[in-house]
Amino acid sequence: MSAENKSQNDDSALSSPxxxxxxxxxxxxxxxxxxxQKAVDLFVNEGYTVETANIYTPEQLAEVLPTVxxxxxxxxxxxxSDLLTKYAKKLLCVGCFCIGTDQTxxxxxASLGIPVFNSPFANTRSVAELMISNIIALSRKLGDQNKxxxxxxxxxxxxxxxxxxxxxxGIVGYGxxxxxxxxLAEAMGLRVLFYDVLPKMALGNAVAANSLxxxxxxxxxxxxHVPYTKSTHMMIDEAQILMMKKGxxxxxxxxxxxxxxxxxxxxxxxxxxxxxxxxxYPKEPTNDTLPLCNxxxxxxxxxxxxxxxxxxxxxxxxxxxxxxxxxxxxxxIASVNFPEVSLEPNSNVHRVLHVHRNVPGVLRKINGxxxxxxxxxxxxxxxxxxxxxxxxxxxxxxFSSDVxxxxxxxxxxxxxxxxxxxxxx
Length: 425
Description:
Elements: E1 28-32, H1 37-46, E2 49-53, H2 58-64, E3 70-73, H3 81-87, E4 93-96, H4 106-111, E5 116-117, H5 124-139, H6 142-150, E6 168-172, H7 176-187, E7 191-195, E8 207-208, H8 212-218, E9 221-224, H9 238-243, E10 248-252, H10 261-269, E11 273-278, E12 298-300, H11 309-329, E13 349-357, H12 362-369, E14 375-382, E15 386-394, H13 401-408, E16 413-420
Parallel strand pairs: 1-2, 1-3, 3-4, 4-5, 6-7, 6-9, 7-8, 9-10, 10-11, 11-12
Antiparallel strand pairs: 13-15, 13-16, 14-15
C-alpha cells in the first residue's frame, strides 16, 4: 500500500509488490473537535499515526496542515480555499465527521485531487428524536414554563397548550432525517405531509405534497430537513411564513441560512407563530444578540442534533471506514465532491490512482505510459472538471517510480498515487 502523491518527492516507490512504498506508520491523521474514539481506534488499528486536537485557529491550521495526510473535522473547523490551496500539499483526503460539508471548500478540494467524505445518515435517529421531542415541547410551551419555574414563577395554564395527536406535521426534505421523523411522528398520532424536490417513497401513511406551499398552508408544525444550496438559501422568509397557518410552529435543524431568523422573530413576537425550535443558525456560535433570543415559546439549542454518544460513534466508524478504503485502495465511494470509483482489494497488482483535469486525450497518454505492462483493470469516471482513473497492472518488478513520475509529469495531472497490493497489506 502506498500513500504517495504528486507533491511528495521524498516518498519514492518501491518496485517489489511485497512491500509498501509508503509505510502506514508515516501516514499522519489529524482529528479535530473531539471526534469519536471509535474513529481514533480504527485508524490506529490500521497502523496510521493519529493526532487529535480540539480547535485550531486558521493560523494554527496553516502551520500543521502541510504535514497532514488526512484531516477529520466537524462543523467548527473551516477548510477554506486559502488553507487548502496554500497548505494542503500532502493532504490525501478530508473527513467531515458530520452530515454537513459546508465547512469545507468542496470544489477547491476536488481541483486539488482531495476527495471529501461525510456521514449523511449515521446521526439520523438522534436528530429525529430531538425533533419529535421539541414538537411536543412546543405544543406544551415547555421552554417558557421551564424558564418561569427557574425564575420562581408558577404559571400553570392550559391556554395555548395542545396534544400533538391529530395535528399535521409538514416535513420539508424527506431524506434520511425527514423520513425517520415521519415514522416517529406517525407513532405519536401526527398526520404527516412532506415535500421533497425529488420523488420519494412515502413511509407509513405519510402523504407527499405537490409543493412547498401546500405543506406551509396545511401543517400545524413545519420541520426543515434540507441541505444548504442556492435554492434553499432563505427558503423560509416573510412570504413563506405568511403562508403558514396562524398559530403554527416552525422547527429548523437543517442549515441556519435556510431561514430568515429576523422574520421568524418578528412573527413570534406578534403572535402569528405560536412557537419555534432552532438548532442551527446563520452564524455559529451565537451570542445574546441573536434575534430569536427571548422570543415567546422559542426553544434554542447549540447545533446538537447529532450530539449523542450513539450518533458520534456511528459517524466515527462510518467516515473512518470510507477514509481507510480510500487510503488503502483508492476507493471514492460516497465522496461528496469526487467521481465515485472503486476496485476490489488485489494482492497481485499495482494500482495507479490518477486525478487529472477532464480534457480529451489523457487516457491515451496514460495508456501509452503503461504500454509495457499488462493492464488488468481500468475504471475511469469524470465530473465536468476532473477525471479519476484507477488502473491496475500485473505485479511486475520492472514497474518502478519512473512510471509514476511520467504520469505525474503529464500537464493534465493533478495528482498520482501508486498502491502496491492495494487493500491487502
